[in-house]
Amino acid sequence: MKFIIITGASRGIGEGIARALLHPENNLICISRTENISLIREAGSARCNINFFRFNLAETGDIPELWEKVSGKIDLQKATGLYLVNNAGVIDPVDRIENCKPGEVDLHMRINLLAPMILTSRFTDLGKGLKIEKRIINISSGAASSPYSGWSSYCTGKAGMEMFTRCVATEQEGTDYPVKCMSVAPGIIDTGMQDNIRGKTREQFIHRDKFVSYKEKGMLADPLAAGKELARLLFSGDFKNGGITDIRNRY
After folding, report:
1. Strand 244-246's sheet: what is its strand order?
2. Which among 33, 34, 132, 164 is most buried, taking Cβ atoms within 10 Å?
3. Could you give the dihedral angle defined by the CA atoms of residues 40, 42, 48 and 51, in that order, rounded to the nearest 10 degrees?
4. Distance CA 10, CA 33 (A)
5. What is the CA 11 to chain-centroid distance, rounded?
6. Which pLDDT tens digit goes with each residue over 49-71?
7. Domain-by-domain residue ranges, the chain?
8. Burial, 214: exposed, middle or buried (Cβ in 10 Å; 0-12, 13-18, 19+)?
9. How far apart are alpha carbons 189 and 219 in whole angstroms?
10. Is 154 a catalytic residue?
11. Where are the alpha helices (DSSP H) in the chain?
């Protein structure tokens, strides 16, 4: 039995990953602010066990308590693999840094960077010494290496995620039965985040018109297709510990 934890699984890329993993041999543990009822129904039809934990990852102080509940759903005696997909994220605040409120920046970093770090810490501890496959995918972005005016929080958080991935991979080198960790940029996906970006003013985000054009020209990728490729990579021989990759040309 493979146990797979997915954050932000109720919609967008997270939903796409979860749908691609609906299989009787998989046990999905989904963390998101809301449940996805249709996903739960499909899981039942596919005879795939699924659990939803409704949780706001901004509440980083409560993650240890959440983890106790999550880990309680993992039967280590039956586990043939443990997997974590740190997918949940936000784009706001989108604006020049002098216009961003301190609370907005703090909230962003807790969701996009601190929560994945804490979950990775607990996941790595849980899997320590277990002679099974253990993998983590951290969802990144091209913004991790390309600065955008108006995206200071988003670019910084994603850059931090990539460095964190590399650090964890380095720590695991030479350990018995290491956890493998990879950072993956899925491309420009047709999600609610894109709706948010298009709703900004040009003063807030000078690249707004380019992102409007992506939508108008049908250049945004299907989140279900992206999720399918991410699910494939999760189990693939292409999975490289400490790797930073972009999968936009694979689907």
Report:
1. 49-54, 26-32, 2-7, 81-86, 133-139, 180-185, 244-246
2. 164
3. -10
4. 8
5. 12
6. 999 999 999 999 999 999 999 99
7. 2-187+222-250
8. middle
9. 9
10. yes
11. 12-20, 37-45, 63-71, 102-109, 115-127, 152-172, 192-198, 208-216, 223-235
CB-CB contact of 56 with 34 (8 Å)? no
190-209 per-position pLDDT tens digit? 999 999 999 999 999 999 99
Helix 12-20 and helix 223-235, axial crossing angle in degrees, nearest 10: 50
83, 148, 154, 177: which one is catalytic? Answer: 154
Q: Is a pLDDT exceeding 90 seen at residue 248?
A: no
Token output for 39: 């996903």
Structure tokens at 203: 């003063």
Q: With the C-alpha atoms ordered 32, 37, 42, 46, is the resulting torsion angle positive or negative?
A: positive
Contact residues for 217 (Cβ-Cβ < 8 A; gap 6+): none
Rounded distance between C-alpha atoms, residue 203 and residue 96, angstroms: 8
Q: Which of 84, 176, 85 is nearest to 134 (CA)?
A: 84
Superfamily, domain 2-187+222-250: NAD(P)-binding Rossmann-like Domain (3.40.50.720)
pLDDT at 215: 95
Torsion of CA 75, 140, 113, 240, to 10 degrees: 50
